[in-house]
Amino acid sequence: MSESSPGGSPEEHSAGSPILQPSFAGADADSAGSGGVFARYKVPVIAGAVVAGVAAALILPVWLAPEPPYTDVGDCAELFGDGFVGGLPFEGVRMEEGEFAPGHSGSPLTEDPDAVRKCIDTGAGRLSVTFTWFGPEVAIGAQELVGLVRGFERGRVADGPFSTFGTAELEDLDVGDGGFVALYSPPEHRESDYREWIPTDDGKSHATAVFSTRNVVVEATVYGKRTDTFDSPKLTARSMADDVLERLAEVGEVG
Fold first, then answer.
1. Cα–Cα dist 66/115, whole Å
2. Domain count, the chain
3. At a CB cut-off of 8 Å and minimum separation 6, what does 43 contact?
4. Where is the region Disordered (predicted)?
């Protein structure tokens, strides 16, 4: 199920996979003779099941083995090179490492400053991506943190004393180990404050995709401009999340 604050109307789809089983109709009638259909296929079917079971027993431990945790995610230049930037729906993006300021969805529950990397768009001001990775000494896991952040963002309102925007929509995000994407906007009477806060200066909304993968939480924010549609930051954040996951897998260090 997807969730939305009042005014939002997210959509979500799910599908099941049918299981097809073979039919042996008429087998009993043929099994009386030694050359019947059932007699001919009984041994191969059983033998095939045994072989499949042995193969599954050998392969299953490999499938269930946990992936090694990340010890570093790589630097911003490696993560967001020309190939990544060239696939974005806007121009002028230049990603560089920025100073991390705790307090938003990606704030880390760790005292290790080397376990956080924030990459910001110093060219067009359209993107901000924060990576937080957790060691075994941290009591909370990456997936648990995403769940906590989701609950907070679902209830974010724009009329609080320290907020210039609220959550307009919140949807599930099927990336990595799972997460969500949220679309934010200000109420009409806070629009001027909002435009002073966002780096694009004239946008009417922004969106953040938050997901976990192994021991890392990723928070990718897209800031809109006045010429964008209201929900375009959400659509960009959602599509960009897969690319961020792919870059992390390529340049991140595991241990």
1. 21
2. 2
3. none
4. 1-27
User: Model pTM?
Assistant: 0.72
Contact 222, 126 (CB under 8 A): yes
Structural domain contains residue 3: no
Question: What domain range includes position 195?
Answer: 70-254
The CA angle 67-241-180, to the nearest 5 degrees, is 90
Distances in Å between the alpha carbon of 169 and those of 4, 17, 128, 181, 232? 5, 29, 20, 8, 12
pLDDT tens digits, 87-113 = 999 999 999 998 755 444 444 445 565
Question: Which helix (H) or strand (E) element contains residue 211?
Answer: strand 206-213
Of 197, 190, 168, whose CA–CA distance to 101 is shortest?
A: 197
